[in-house]
Structures are given as structure tokens and as C-alpha cells.
């Protein structure tokens, strides 16, 4: 199955992501995603992408302080409003989806009615604006899995499969068996995995094949559930300063292409 190959636009440290699109296109990438920007900056990215023939797949919403979504008080408003900004930018610039986190860290608040009401409001806002809310797997299996059931009848809710998070946080959980046919986006990267102890953080976002992820298993599962979307790299060159920007992007492209052929 031929799929689009993509990478985050902010993959080159210190570079303007708009300018990076030119090199990405030249090397062979088909698609990209970005962090959240103003509507004006997002539109600039979208117009450049359209000119180059690149697909702007999704926007990653802010997630710093995401645990506040489950806590009393007004501290949640910073991340909540950041998610609203991402949805507004996506809707205004015809970007189909936003990627959302549910919680962060190992010691997260319990799922509760307060937090659910806030996420319900985010989902409602996505539906109103014609944007897909794609929740991403992280450390806590139950938090994201709960949303699979809660929003199973909401067409505007889908999921983003992150193979690196699966490998270093929840290695014994096959997220594709939970998400099944509801995945509309991927985050692909590598890392060394982890032991059973909850110490450190090996979510290093390395180039594929620099860690120990089983990419054949990943592709087998994507194929099993009929995923036809982009294979999207979520990594940057900060760990690869010995490479030029062109060398890094060429290596990233060659490796994701190799994965796509598995």
C-alpha cells in the first residue's frame, strides 16, 4: 500500500518552518504537520504548502499543563485556550485535524466529571468548526482508552497512533488493537524503550532504526486495520548536529520510505 510520507515542519532547529518546506519537498516528502501558530502564520504555512504541492495534515495543539484539565480552578484555561486556538487555526486554514493530549506524566489526575466536561466542550467545538479531534496515546492507557468508548459515536473524534510512546511507555499494550479503524494520523520515531521501572524518560524521538522499535510489527498492525493515511515522522535534528539539514532530512526520508515498504 502506497502512503504519503511526512515529517514535522519544525524538524530543523533554528530554521523557519515555512522555509523548511522547500527542502522537504525537494527531498521527496509529501506531507507535514506543525505546532500551533496564529491563524496568520498558519495561513502562511498553508499557502506555501499548496504552492509546493505538500499536504498540511494536522496541527498539534499545545499540551503544557494538560493535567490541569482535570483539576479544580482556572489553571486549565491556558491549555484549554491553546487547544481552542489550534482548532481555530485549523478551521480557518482548511487543515483537517488537531492532535490532542489527554494527560501527561506518570502521576496523573484521575478521570473525573470536571475534566470530561471540559474535553466534551473541546470536542463540541471541533464538531462545530468541522475539525477532527485526534487524541494521542501517551503513558496512561486507561485515560486515552476511556475516550475510545466515550466518543465512539462522535464522527469528529479519531486517534493519533504514536509508535514511540507505545514502545517506551506502554510496550505491552498494542494501541492499534484499541484504536482499530479510528486512526487518522501517526507519529513515528524511535527510542531505546524502557524497563518496568517508572524512572527516566526514553521518549527521545530518534530517527527510525536508531533505537529498538519494531517497525515491521508496527506496519503489520497498520495494515491489519486498513490505515491508509500518512506515515508521519515526529522528530528533529537536535540530536543529529553532525548532519546538515539536507543530510538529516534525506536520512529521515530514506528511513521512513524503507518502513513504508515493509
What is this structure's SSE topology?
Elements: E1 5-8, H1 17-27, E2 31-34, H2 39-52, E3 55-60, H3 77-93, E4 97-100, H4 113-129, E5 132-136, H5 141-150, E6 157-162, H6 163-169, H7 175-179, E7 183-187, H8 215-224, E8 231-233, H9 245-260
Parallel strand pairs: 1-2, 1-8, 2-3, 3-4, 4-5, 5-6, 6-7
Quote the beta fraction: 5-15%
Helical segment tally?
9
Low-confidence parts: none
Order of helices and strands: EHEHEHEHEHEHHEHEH
Strand order of the largest sheet: 7-6-5-4-3-2-1-8
Q: Summarize the biggest pleated sheet.
A: 8 strands, parallel
Instruction: Label the structural class.
Output: alpha/beta
The average pLDDT is 96
**What is the approximate shape?**
globular
Terminal residue distance:
10 Å
The tally of strands reads: 8
Q: Helix coverage percent of residues?
A: 40-55%
Computed CA radius of gyration, to the nearest angstrom: 18 Å
Descriptive key words:
single chain, 262 residues, alpha/beta, eight-stranded parallel β-sheet, 9 helices, 8 strands
Q: What is this entry, summarized?
A:
The protein is α/β, with parallel strands linked by helices. It has helices at 17-27, 39-52, 77-93, 113-129, 141-150, 163-169, 175-179, 215-224, 245-260, and strands spanning 5-8, 31-34, 55-60, 97-100, 132-136, 157-162, 183-187, 231-233.
General description of the model:
This protein is α/β, with parallel strands linked by helices and 262 residues long. The chain contains nine helices and eight strands. An eight-stranded parallel β-sheet has the order 7-6-5-4-3-2-1-8. The relative contact order is 0.15.
Amino acid at each position: 500500500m502506497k502512503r504519503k510520507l511526512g515529517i514535522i515542519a519544525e524538524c530543523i532547529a533554528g530554521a523557519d518552518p515555512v522555509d523548511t518546506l522547500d527542502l522537504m519537498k525537494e527531498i521527496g516528502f509529501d506531507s507535514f504537520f506543525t505546532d500551533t501558530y496564529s491563524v496568520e502564520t498558519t495561513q502562511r504555512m498553508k499557502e506555501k504548502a499548496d504552492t509546493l504541492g505538500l499536504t498540511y495534515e494536522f496541527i498539534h495543539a499545545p499540551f503544557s499543563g494538560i493535567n490541569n484539565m482535570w483539576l479544580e480552578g482556572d489553571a486549565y484555561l491556558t491549555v484549554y485556550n491553546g487547544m481552542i486556538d489550534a482548532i481555530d487555526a485549523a478551521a480557518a486554514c482548511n487543515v483537517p485535524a488537531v492532535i490532542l493530549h489527554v494527560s501527561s506524566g506518570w502521576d496523573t489526575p484521575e478521570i473525573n466529571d470536571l475534566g470530561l466536561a471540559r474535553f466534551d466542550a473541546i470536542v463540541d467545538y471541533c464538531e462545530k468548526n468541522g475539525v477532527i479531534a485526534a487524541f494521542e496515546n501517551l503513558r496512561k492507557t486507561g485515560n486515552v482508552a476511556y475516550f475510545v468508548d466515550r466518543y465512539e459515536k462522535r464522527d469528529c473524534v479519531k486517534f493519533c497512533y504514536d509508535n514511540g510512546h507505545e514502545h517506551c511507555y506502554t510496550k505491552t499494550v498494542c494501541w492499534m488493537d484499541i484504536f482499530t479503524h479510528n486512526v487518522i494520523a501517526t507519529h513515528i520515531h524511535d527510542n531505546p524503550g524502557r524497563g518496568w521501572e517508572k524512572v527516566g524518560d526514553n521518549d527521545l524521538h530518534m530517527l527510525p532504526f536508531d533505537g529498538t522499535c519494531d517497525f515491521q510489527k508496527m506496519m503489520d498492525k497498520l495494515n491489519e486495520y486498513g490505515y491508509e493515511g500518512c506515515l508521519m515522522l515526529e522528530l528533529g535534528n537536535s540530536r543529529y548536529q553532525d548532519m546538515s539539514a539536507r543530510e538529516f532530512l534525506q536520512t529521515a526520508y530514506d528511513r521512513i520510505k524503507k518502513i513504508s515498504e515493509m
